[in-house]
Amino acid sequence: MINSLSGRLLVLTTIFVMLAEVLIFVPSIARFREDYLMNRLERAQIASLALLADDMIDRELEAELLENAGVFNVVLRRDQVRQLMLASELPQPISKTYDMRDNSAAILIRDALTRFVSPENEVIRVIGAPVREAGLLIEITMETTPLREAMIDYGIRILILSAVISIFTAFLLFIAMRALLLKPIKRVVGHMQNYAAAPEDARRIITPSAGVTELREAEDALQKLETDLTQALRQKERLAQLGSAVSKISHDLRNILTSAQLFTDRIEMSEDPTVKRMAPKLVGSITRAVHLCESTLAFGKAEEPSPTLTMLPLSDLIDEVIDSERLAVADADISFSCDVAIGMVVRADPEQLYRVLANLIRNARQALVAVGQPGEICVDAHEDEEAWWIHVTDTGPGLPAKAQEHLFTPFQGGARKGGSGLGLAISAELVKGHGGTLELAHTGPEGTRFSICLPKGDGTMRAGIASVQPIQAADP
């Protein structure tokens, strides 16, 4: 109970109300002391009237008047003359004098608290103004024990009343908060638990009904969140089913196309002019289809291990990629260059970095071949204190605007007609697995430039690796 929101609300409400009552208690006890002393002054003034009516009263009557007034002596100042009206023997000397005619609230509170915590019995003098202008002032002497006892009795009654008021107020506030706040919150929590059990079921989405503005806003936001999440889960499920089907189809289709690729090698040996003219196109189409199947399989699986980082000579790796691409452009006027220092080494997974550079250089080569003009592809690199930087630049026509919008999005960022966009998406994920980034530096009619950043810091690299889901490579 105490750990629940309602229990803590009840306890806190009781405590705060009690605190408020304590803050009220201090000035209240000061007010009670002032009224008590003023009452003693009035009673002493009334007792002195008997002497004004009759100058001679016996000792017994005087003692009775003083006892009824609760004082030892009564002094009345009239017409600039100070008169001792009633008197009796003081049990001890006067310790303090209090003037009740002009006291501030702070002084009254101070004197009241001092008397409240002082158990010693003292004789004090109290000075005040007579009622109904019956003189200039009136003085009395009295004991403090009856005053303190009366203050304690009054304080106990005030505290008991405060406790009752606090508990009753806290109970009412608890009931109100439970009805207006706690029950709606529990209802929202119940909806969330019900929705979490089957988020794909649209019938479980909350229907806002709270009357409190803030809760209604929370319910509206929760309804939108659940609606968007349900739609996203449905789409994700459809995409997962589609991806599974595509992966299976791509796997089988790749095997079929590989066999067909072997037959096209035989067809190219034919002496028929028509066959010779059509064979290269057929080979190119089959090759692209095989590559698409392999890329789809690579992206569709999520079981590729994290990169195995090692220090490797960058120029040797780039030369290996460029040599492979040169074989594909034997008839095209495309030149390759590598501007990397011979001794430069980087920390990376050799196989994964090879795939990234091969994707970028292949895309650049295909862009140049598509326009049918001479061009150049250059790979350069440098390093600073924080990272290694690798740049792949071509003199091609640049990327179209549509391709730039979804450049690293699978099946949407293809830069050429018929492209799937998987190459750049996979490359970006591989670089991200190294803790680095793959970005489009610039593109335009003068050419395109991609930049790879591989951080040197171990902490940054480990954080990057931990945050990336590995990608399964294509079947060999």
UniProtKB/TrEMBL annotation:
Q: Which residue numbers delimit the Histidine kinase domain?
A: 248-458
Point out the signal peptide segment: none
Q: Which SMART domains match?
A: HATPase_c, HisKA
Residue stretches in coiled coil: 215-242
The UniProt transmembrane annotation reads: 9-30, 154-177
UniProt entry keywords in alphabetical sequence: Coiled coil, Kinase, Membrane, Transferase, Transmembrane, Transmembrane helix, Two-component regulatory system
Listed PANTHER family: HISTIDINE KINASE 1, TWO-COMPONENT HISTIDINE KINASE
Spell out the protein name for this chain.
histidine kinase
Q: Which organism is it from?
A: Roseobacter insulae
